[in-house]
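The aim of this short unit is practical: by the end, you should be able to scan a pair of folded records and say something sensible about each. We start with the first protein, listed as its amino acid sequence and then its C-alpha cells.
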Amino acid sequence: MPMAMETAKEASKKRKRKHASSGEGLRKKDKSTPLPEANPPSAALPAESKKRKTDHATVGNGEKKKKKREEGDLEERAEVNDGDDDEEEEELSQSSSGEEDSDGDDKKEVEEHEEDEKQTNGQENGEQLELPSLNAVSLPQTEAEPQKFSELDLSEKTMKAIADMKFEKMTEIQRRGIPPLLAGRDVLGAAKTGSGKTLAFLIPAVEMLSALRFKPRNGTGVIVISPTRELALQIFGVARELMAHHSQTYGIVIGGANRRAEAEKLVKGVNLLIATPGRLLDHLRDTPGFVFKNLKALVIDEADRILEVGFEDEMRQIVKILPSEDRQTMLFSATQTTKVEDLARISLRQGPLYINVDHSKEHSTVEGLEQGYVICDSDKRFLLLFSFLKRNLKKKIIVFFSSCNCVKYHAELLNYIDLPVLDLHGKQKQQKRTNTFFEFCNATQGTLICTDVAARGLDIPAVDWIVQFDPPDDPRDYIHRVGRTARGANGKGRSLMFLQPSEVGFLKHLKEARVPVVEFDFPAKKIVNVQSQLEKLIGQNYYLNKSAKDGYRSYLQAYASHSLRSVFDVHKLDLVKVAKSFGFPTPPRVDITLAASMGRDKKQQGRRNYGSQPKHAPKFKRRSDD
C-alpha cells in the first residue's frame, strides 16, 4: 500500500502541474490577443476581466480535483480517469472562454457607453477630446497592385458610396496611390488633370476619419487645400457623395462666401474641411473655437497652381500653424517646379513616396484627345469663332480668353446677337460663379467662355470641344486647359487653338512638352462675314462700345505680360487688325502702360516663367484718331 500511496501522490503532482500549465497557457493566450485598435483605452478593460475570470476558473478546477482525490480510488483506475478528467476540463475551459468572451463584449459595450457619456460631459465642460494616435490604427494594406475598388478592403460604408457613384475600376493614380495612403505614407503625386486624383486622396482621408471614429467634438481631422473656389466646390461635391453613409462631418471655406456662417460651422466641428488658402489662413488665425489640433491629414491639391497664383506665403504660414506630429501629408501637382519641391520639403515627412503616372507616357495629354490649331489673322479671329460656335450649337464647348474683360465683352456681344453663352471669370461674385459652374456642368450642350479660372482641376462632364481663342501663357497652361475634355479612362474630346502667323513658334514649345497637335483647315467660304454688322453694332451701342474698349485694352495688357516674349511679341501685333476683331474700324484710344506693368508683375508672382522677361513693359503710343 505504501507504493500505491506514493503513486497516487505522483499522480496528484502530475495533475497539478498540468492544471498550472493549462492556466498559464490560457493567460498567455489572453495576453497575446490583439486589442481593438480603433479605441484602445476602452478595449483594455475587457481583456483584464477575461484574465481574472480565467484565473478564477483555474482555481475552481483545482479545488474540485483535490476533493476528488480524497474521496476517489487512488489506484491505477485513478490514473486512467485522469486523462478523461483532463479532456473534460479542456472542454470546460473552452466553453468557459466562450462565455467570458460574451461577457467581455457586454462589458465592453457598457464601458464604451460610459466613456461616451464621460466624453460628452467633458465637451460640455469645454474640454477637447484627445484622439488615439494614427499609429494605433491598423489601416488596410495590399501587397499586389489592385485593379478594382473592391480589392482594397475598404469599409462597407465607403464601398457603398463608391458603388452609388458608379465606380468600379481604378485609374492609374488611384491604383498606385490609394494603398500606400491607406497605410499612412506621405505621398508626392504627379498626375495630369483628369487622372482621378480627387478620389485618390479623398478615399484614404475618409477611411482614416472613420477608423479613428471622428466626431464633431474632435474638430478637423483632414484639410484639403485647393487653388480656386470652383475646384474647392467640386472636391466638396465628391466628398459629399463619398461620405453619404458615414457619420463624420464635412464642410468648405472659400473666399467670397459668408465668413460668419463658416466660422459657426467650424466651431460646431467639421471633420473633413475643403478650403482655399487665403480663407483657411484667415480662420486658422482669427476663428476662436476652430479645433484643428487633432489634424491627422493634410492634402494640397494642384500645388503648382496654388503657388502660381501667389499663395506661396500663405502656404508657408498654414504649414507652420498646423500640427505636424503624426500628420500624413498628400501633395499633388500636375507639373513639378522648384517652388513645388520647396513646399514638399517643408510639408512632407522624411522619405515620402513619389508617384509619377506620366513619366513613361509618350504624350503629356490624354490619349483620347484630338488636338489641333488654326492659323488666322487678327481681324478674322472673331469671325472664325462666331462661325465655329454657330455650327456647333448642339455641342458642349469651353472657350478660353486671356482676361476677365475679354470674357465679359464677348459674353455680352454673343448673347446680344442671339448666340447664348455662359461666362465665368474672376471678377464675378462668388454666388454668380458657383451658379454658372453648376449650370454648365448639368447642361448637355452649350458654350462657356472663361478665363483660366476654370482651367485647373475642374471636372465638367462630357465637354466636346476646348477652344483656346487667346493662346495660353506656356505649355503647362495649354495642358491644363485641354484637360477639361477627354476626362476619365475612355474619355474622348477635341481641342482647337487659335494662332496668328507671328505665333507659330509656340508649336515648337508644345512639341518639346510632348503635346501632339495638327493643323486644322477652315475654308474661307465657310466663315460667316459679319464684320460690317459688328462694327455698326459697336458704334451704335454705348454699353457694348465701352465693354469692347475694356476688352481691347485687357487683351493688349495680357499680351504684353506674356512669359514667352520671343513668340508673343506685342510689337509684332497689327493693332488695326486687333481692333477690328473687337468691332472697331480703327484702334480706340487707350492707355495701357501702367496696367501692363501691373499685369506682368501679378502674373509673375510665384511662377517659374518660360523664356526671358524684359525689365520694363512696352509702351504704346496714343493715337489721335478715336
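Turning to the second protein, read its sequence before its C-alpha cells, just as you did above.
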Amino acid sequence: MGYKIYYDILGAAAYAGVTRHTIYHWIRKGVKDVDGKKVWLPARIVEGETQINE
C-alpha cells in the first residue's frame, strides 16, 4: 500500500504558491475546477492541527 504526504496550512500554502487564507477558503468553500465542477481541498485534523493531503 502506498503512503500519503500531509502538509500543515503554512506548508500547503507554500507548496501551492498561495496564501494561508486561500488554503482555508479551499477547505471551507471549495474551488471550481477547469470543467466548472466544485471541489474541496481534502483536509484532516490530527491532535488539533489541520493537515492537507498532497
